[in-house]
Structure formats: structure tokens, C-alpha cells
Design goal:
about 200 residues, alpha/beta, Arc Repressor Mutant, subunit A, single chain
């Protein structure tokens, strides 16, 4: 995505610091910049604005403010660059756990805004890709387990070998124009209904 097409939200109660970030963003080619200085109803306002990326600047955050921002970070599923003037190890770990893409301590300078934002977007995209791949791998593993259970049911009920049970699942799926895992799910569900105390 080109910088000028990104919708950037800046969250900063300090208007002077917000203007530094805004100027850095505009100089870097980010034209769609919205600033929120009032934290009231922040989650709702973020949803309404629907930004592509969020920049949060916290001059001297206390634990409550940080935790509030981390909760928002968990909820919005967007790249987030967070600037703070001071921090500690626990806050850094909490930021990482909350999904903050870039956590910059004492680094608010106009010329650094663009590279930090680009890095935040890249890290967010990489993390999102890894999360998707992990979910796909988990789904494939669950599908394999389900197919194994269905094969086991067929082997016991019909006296088939493992290969014969799989071939029957595959033929049935092809005949019904469905996926093998869908047939396996139907078989496992039916078996549990017919024998709720059984080993399915």
C-alpha cells in the first residue's frame, strides 16, 4: 500500500507532540492523518475511523494508561506504533504480548516517524501471515485427526483395512461432491449419536 493511500490514526493527548507526528507523516507522504486527543470512547472512535495503521504517543504513561492502550491494541488488529518517553521491561513485554508492532522508547523525532511506521506495518503483516499459517496448520491437523477417527470407525464396523477405509471415504466424498473431511465429520457425528458412550 502506498503511503498516501493509508489511513493513519494518531492518538496523542499532547497536541504539540501530535503535530510533530502529523508533520512527519505528511512529509513522508501520508495524506490521510486523523488525530485523536481525547481518550473518551476511544475504542468506538477507532472503529468508526477504521484506520490502516495507528500511532500512539504516550508522553509519560502510567500503568493504567498503558494497560488501556494494550487492550485497544489487542482488540483492533491493526499495525500499531507506540511512542513512549520512558518504559520498563514489564511494559515492553506487555506491549509485545498485546501485539504492538513497534514500541519506541524516547524516540519521537519527526524524521523517524516514516521508517518506524513502515517497520510497524511490515512486522504486523509478518505476524499476521504467521498467525494465518499457524491456524491453517492447526486446521489441517484437526482434519487429519477427524479422518483418522472416521477410518477407525469404518475399520471396526466393516472390517476394512486402513487403505480400504480411506478409499471408501474418498469414493463417498467424490460421489457426493464433498470434501473427505466433511464425510469424516458426518461419520464421526453419526457414530456419536448412535453410540454416545462409545469410543469415537
Amino acid at each position: 500500500m502506498k503511503p498516501n493511500s493509508l489511513n493513519v490514526l494518531v492518538i496523542d493527548e499532547n497536541r504539540i507532540r501530535a503535530s510533530i507526528i502529523e508533520e512527519g507523516l505528511r512529509d513522508a507522504g501520508y495524506d490521510n492523518v486523523t488525530i485523536i486527543a481525547d481518550m473518551t470512547g476511544l475504542a468506538r472512535r477507532i472503529t468508526e475511523i477504521n484506520p490502516d495503521v495507528i500511532v500512539i504517543d504516550l508522553e509519560n504513561p502510567n500503568r493504567d494508561v498503558l494497560e488501556s492502550m494494550f487492550q485497544i491494541s489487542r482488540a483492533v488488529n491493526r499495525p500499531i506504533a507506540m511512542f513512549v518517553d520512558k518504559s520498563d521491561e514489564a511494559s515492553i513485554e506487555a506491549a509485545v504480548d498485546a501485539g504492538v508492532s513497534a514500541y519506541i522508547v524516547d524516540g519521537l523525532r519527526q524524521e523517524r516517524v516514516r521508517p518506524i511506521l513502515k517497520m510497524a506495518i511490515s512486522r504486523f503483516n509478518a505476524f499476521s501471515r504467521l498467525s494465518r499459517e499457524l491456524e491453517e496448520a492447526r486446521g489441517e491437523l484437526e482434519n487429519r485427526k477427524l479422518i483418522e477417527r472416521a477410518k477407525g470407525l469404518l475399520m471396526r464396523a466393516r472390517g476394512l483395512s486402513e487403505m480400504e477405509a480411506y478409499a471408501l471415504l474418498r469414493r463417498t466424498a467424490m460421489g457426493q461432491n464433498r470434501k473427505i473431511v466433511e464425510i469424516a465429520q458426518s461419520l464421526v457425528t453419526a457414530a456419536s449419536l448412535l453410540d454416545p458412550g462409545g469410543d469415537t
